[in-house]
Amino acid sequence: MENRNEEIRELYDEAVASSLEHLDTLPKDSKEYADCVDSMTKMYRLRMEQAKADDEYEDAYKRRIEEIEKRQADNELRKQQMAQQHKEFKMKLLADVATNAVKIGTFVVVGKWSAVLESGGVIASGTAKNLIRGVQKFVDFNKY
Fold this sequence. Notes:
Order of helices and strands: HHH
Mean pLDDT: 85
Low-confidence stretches: none
Oligomer: single chain
Structural class: mainly alpha
Shape: rod-shaped
Strand content: under 5%
Largest sheet: none
Helix content: over 70%
Radius of gyration: 44 Å
Number of domains: 1
Number of helices: 3
């Protein structure tokens, strides 16, 4: 694209130089002189339109690159956020599992102790049941 634009600029410069040389040889009040000036004016306008189109293309290209880079940065940020959320979820899950394991373990140990103490005659059956109910309230299995 840049080579093509360079070629167009060179052709324009050559045409202008040629027109200026030709213009110097013409009488100023002749029709040929007026036609040459009109041609140079048209070439100038076309050159300005070409320069404007080139600038617009370059600006659009830069905006597109910036949009792509921004989208990539946003995607990377989203990936990092998702990874952090996943890590936090796993940590919370592990904490919940550990908490429940402790509660279940406590419930099992108290249940076995109360069964052993009850069978050994150390505590009454009602006391063992009350002990287990107290542990159930502490453990609160309905919470999960």
